[in-house]
TrEMBL record:
Ligase as UniProt keyword: yes
GO molecular-function terms, A-Z: ligase activity
Keywords: Ligase
Name used for this protein in its record: Amino acid--[acyl-carrier-protein] ligase
Classification via NCBIfam families: PRK07080.1
EC assignment: 6.2.1.n2
Source species of the chain: Ferranicluibacter rubi
Coiled coil: none
Gene3D superfamilies reported in the protein's UniProt record: Bira Bifunctional Protein, Domain 2
Family matches, as InterPro entries: aa-tRNA-synth_II/BPL/LPL
């Protein structure tokens, strides 16, 4: 296969990704999915020893919880909502007429009580807060969900719908910070075990607007976010395939999360971009998994 072609075109040609006609929205082949399944099993082997509580939320979340999270204050450009037709028969006729005439019919859709999940951990915080105070020692949770972010791109690593695997730690600041540091070390060793070159660097989220510049600077200055970076896209900087985030007491205050002694809980999370990691593996080891290095195949397939 022509290695001069962009990675996305080579993935399409190999049938690993399936073009839907929308940038950042792709089907996945069985071979692509198998790589993700095998990699998640490796994650399970590392994180399962800590005995987290496993929760799987759907890719949509309660709109009221989304609004309460403050996400729209920081990332309105990334958010996605779910709208549906809620009209009568006459409205339906009008809608069909608009479609037949090639006009915009979406104005007749109304917002539902569901928004697309922006990060796997967002539904978790109000859910745990409803239980009351955290147990002694805090909480640890294992999450995985499809997430949505509206940033269409021809870079295969920047999908609009993608899966995020997360471990979330809640509790006292010292415990939460130690959890994040431990996973920065685990994550580096994990990626090295599958033959991927990595570097970890301080980072920031894509905060919106003028105020966002201040948030970005504060996040970097306080070392609240680190990313594990792997080269994937040609002629571009390395791609963030894992993130290590310390939220301080933000979600604790937002949702009333408390420790067993009544203090506001701090939270941190480690996130795996599953599609990005699969893409990194295909980029560095080739598009045929049968030809991957023996040690990588042993790690993933045993």
């Amino acid at each position: 296969m022509d290695m001069q072609l962009p990675l996305l075109d080579r993935l399409f040609a190999a049938g690993l990704l399936i073009d839907t006609g929308v940038d950042g929205l792709y089907g996945r082949s069985g071979a692509f999915e198998d790589v993700i399944t095998r990699f998640e099993a490796v994650i399970d082997g590392l994180g399962g020893v800590d005995k987290p509580e496993t929760i799987r939320f759907p890719p949509g979340m309660n709109r009221a919880h989304f609004e309460g999270s403050g996400y729209m204050k920081s990332f309105p450009q990334l958010a996605g909502t779910i709208h549906s037709f809620c009209g009568c028969e006459l409205d339906h006729v009008s809608l069909l007429t608009c479609m037949e005439e090639g006009k915009d019919w979406t104005g007749q859709q109304q917002a539902t009580d569901i928004v697309l999940t922006p990060a796997a951990c967002y539904p978790l915080y109000p859910t745990i807060a409803k239980r009351g105070a955290l147990p002694v020692g805090g909480g640890l949770f294992d999450l995985q969900s499809y997430c949505f972010r509206h940033e269409p791109s021809k870079e295969p690593t920047r999908m609009q719908l993608f899966r995020m695997r997360e471990y979330v730690r809640m509790g006292k600041p010292t415990d939460v910070v130690a959890f994040r540091q431990d996973w920065m070390e685990r994550g580096t060793k994990l990626m090295e075990s599958v033959g991927l070159p990595v570097e970890i660097d301080v980072a920031n989220d894509p905060f919106f607007g003028r105020a966002g510049k201040m948030y970005k600077n504060n996040q970097r200055n306080q070392n609240l976010k680190f990313e594990l970076l792997i080269p994937v896209n040609a002629n571009a900087g390395p791609t963030a395939c894992m993130s290590f985030n310390y939220h301080q007491d933000h979600f604790g205050k937002t949702w009333g999360l408390t420790t067993d002694d009544g203090e506001t809980a701090h939270t941190a999370c480690v996130g795996f971009g599953l599609e990005r990691i699969a893409l990194a593996l295909f980029k560095h080891h080739g598009l045929d998994v049968n030809e991957w290095p023996a040690h990588v195949r042993k790690t993933l397939w045993g």
